[in-house]
Amino acid sequence: MRPHYPSKLFSELVDASNPKIQLMERMNSPLHDDDNDDERKGEVVTTTGMPALMDELIEEILLRIPASSLVRLRNSVCGSWRTLISSSQFAKDHLRRSMAVDPALTYPRVAYYSSSYSYPTIGTFSVRSVFENPPREPTKVVPYEGRRCRSIIGSCNGLLCLHDDELEDRAMLWNPCTGFTSQPLKIGGVFNYCGFGYDHVNDKYKLFGIVIKKSRESVTRIFTFGPKSKWRTIQDFPYRLRDPSNKASVVGRTGRFVSGTGTLNWLLRGRRSSFVAVLSLDLVKETYSQFSAPSRDSDDDHCMFPRLDILGGCLAVCCETKKTHWTLWLMKEYGVPQSWTKLAIIPHHPLLINSRLNYVLRPMYMLKNDVLLAKSPSGKLVLCNINDGSIYFPNIDSSSDGMTKHRPLSRGVGSRIFHIYHESLVSPSHFGLPSCSSEMRLFKPTL
User: Fold this and answer.
1) pTM score of the predicted model
2) pLDDT tens, position by position, 300-328
3) Which of 32, 75, 235, 426 is buried most, with the most CB atoms less than 10 Å from its CB?
4) Interatomic CA distance for residues 19 and 15, integer angstroms
5) Is the Cβ–Cβ distance between 182 and 432 less than 8 Å?
6) 273 CB-near residues (< 8 Å, 6+ apart)
């Protein structure tokens, strides 16, 4: 049986003048033309060496198709293609290609949840749509529903690490693109600080957490996701919550994962000084280190501490300076303080600031180093053009997300927490975890 594939989609993604592509099209054509059947009788068709070439060419073409398109195609192609698309090695190759060669293969999306109300839904929407849609065409939110309320610990390689603290603390992995989740992991207590990331040296996904047991005892643990893995106690976290003996405090509960470094990172701030640094946990060695954050201007006495974020795969810090503008810093070379680079100066705009709230501008995603998607202190998502200083508030339709106590996203984010993730084919089953597609489903609001 001849494999079927959507030729229109392929032709849009590859160069039709490529000899290999032309060969594939001929190979995919019927061997006999009904109109010339009489003329072709007795003709011998030689295909020596073609199957191996076909397999190589098919995989090369499939690697050029976005992850979401491959998921849609998976159930409508032949068994050998379906097996290839579902394999662990293909998922890794596709992810590697998308990160190194063609980022469009893993479209970035935003996932969010409510931190103040216990909703079982998680909303997602396209970053590309936010940047490209005209004002009157809203970006649509796609909501998913679980059986219990979920928060998001972090994202990595298309996987979101979800956490629920209802009745019994549990965590699980979910790929919104493929729909698969892992079986829930019992935590055995309440998380204090936590983080999720990927150990690229050992090819392992790891969950870090300071777990507060029912006895009020705390223990620092790492869980390595896999068929036989379990919690393992590691060296204590250097800073404890509400410990008066700490010389510095940790800003934010969840560590920021920097892809390619295998590290989780938290921002530190001094209790009685302007000391600001980054605390790093190496998921490969499972050890801690510390390096300085970008320094504030010496004559700036405005006391508003920044937050740590990820922008373009790098650590990012956005500081408010002299109550007149925000300065956006990017760490170009991880762990090297001298590589902190002043990426942009964003002037205060009346529609962005909120004098009642001590918030800073929070960067989320940068498009081609000139347009920044950010969460503004006024509580709205905003697009800032860092070249000409113009701003634009995107129209996001969140009417279907089920978070009825929140204002629509187009009017303000409220207590929603946002995470950027990239679509991929990585599945929990690829590293030995039982997986299913029933834990998170598309949410259909009742009318």
Assistant:
1) 0.85
2) 555 566 889 999 899 999 988 777 888 99
3) 426
4) 9
5) no
6) none
